[in-house]
Design a protein that fits this description.
This protein is an alpha/beta fold. The chain is 41% helix and 25% strand. The protein has helices spanning 49-56, 84-90, 102-105, 112-124, 128-141, 147-150, 160-172, 190-207, 218-224, 242-247, 252-260, 276-293, and strands at residues 5-18, 21-34, 38-42, 65-74, 77-78, 95-98, 178-182, 210-215, 227-232, 235-241. α4 (112-124) crosses α5, α5 packs across α7 (160-172) and α7 runs parallel beside α8 (190-207). It is globular, with a radius of gyration of 20 Å.
């Protein structure tokens, strides 16, 4: 990892024009993702973190949303200056996207294999047979069990964790330099969540993929990320390395968030998401000590 930037968002502003007036969803945000790093973009619901990530790909999803200022620099070029055709050549081959809900991201009418093959053929211009080989490689990359058989499966036939692996496989099928992951584990149970987070770590380590991870969970940040940026109500409040921000937060809002976190283990070489059974054990120990003192 170095200090070169895979993505630099400068003074970004995004407004939503609603019937009730203009909502300033993002207000002059500055966000940087270092090459080979994993940046956690953290904030409560409505903080503007997901809007920021969608703005990078210019996929805000409604004509009422407008990027009103700033720059989004990728590979030294401002994405806001690109035509829609040029953006289509960037989405997929250079910047991949993993959405929060894999079931809605996948088409229920087509098999997993058909959806992977379509993406690969669209962006890489290969024949169907070659695309199928590449699709299997992508599923193997994300460690989907029985990948060859799963190629013939429909989304509803897979578990939540398996569907999320497929969505990640689609995003990685063209080997993008940057991966945007918007709350990729929110809908999953704790065990599967850790598997997906570990998969993101492996992708970062083995492929050198830079990752922008949108989350509201500081436990996820502690486990996965190298850097963190905190947002609230469209403003960026604090940025820095995970170790610095999580152990020495400077902004009062970040300090308040950290006080609300039950426990974070940052003193180990391998950081881990706090385990519920571990916290329960600590609670029982404290309860027993209190009884003994009484």
């Amino acid at each position: 990892m170095n200090d070169a930037l895979a993505l630099e968002v400068k003074n970004l502003s995004v407004d939503f024009h609603t019937d009730g007036g203009v909502v300033h969803a993002v207000k002059g945000a500055d966000i940087s993702v270092r090459e080979g790093a994993i940046l956690g973009l953290v904030g409560e619901s409505g903080s503007g973190k997901s809007v920021t990530s969608l703005a990078v790909l210019r996929l805000l999803g409604t004509p009422r949303a407008k990027i009103t200022g700033g720059e989004i620099l990728f590979r030294g070029e401002n994405l806001l200056d690109k035509t829609e055709k040029e953006m289509c050549a960037i989405r997929g081959p250079h910047i991949g996207m993993v959405s929060q809900n894999a079931l809605s991201a996948l088409d229920p009418s087509f098999t997993i294999g058909a959806q992977l093959v379509e993406v690969i053929r669209l962006h890489q211009g290969v024949d169907k047979a070659t695309a199928r080989v590449k699709a299997l490689e992508a599923l193997d990359l994300v460690a989907l069990p029985e990948s060859k058989r799963r190629m013939k499966a429909y989304p509803h036939e897979l578990s939540g964790g398996q569907r999320q692996r497929v969505v990640i496989a689609i995003a990685l099928s063209c080997r993008p330099e940057l991966l945007l992951a918007d709350e990729p584990t929110t809908a999953l149970d704790a065990t599967v969540q850790k598997q997906i987070l570990d998969l993101l770590l492996d992708i970062n380590a083995e492929l050198g993929t830079s990752i922008l991870l949108v989350t509201h969970d500081f436990g996820v940040v502690a486990h996965v990320c190298t850097d963190v940026t905190v947002m609230r109500r469209g403003d960026v409040l604090e940025s820095g390395t995970v170790e610095r921000v999580l152990t020495q937060p400077q902004h009062p809002y970040t300090q308040g968030l950290m006080r609300a976190v039950p426990h974070l283990r940052l003193d180990e070489a391998t950081r881990a998401v706090p385990r519920a059974d571990r916290r329960l054990f600590e609670f029982r120990t404290e309860e027993k000590e209190a009884v003994d003192v009484a």
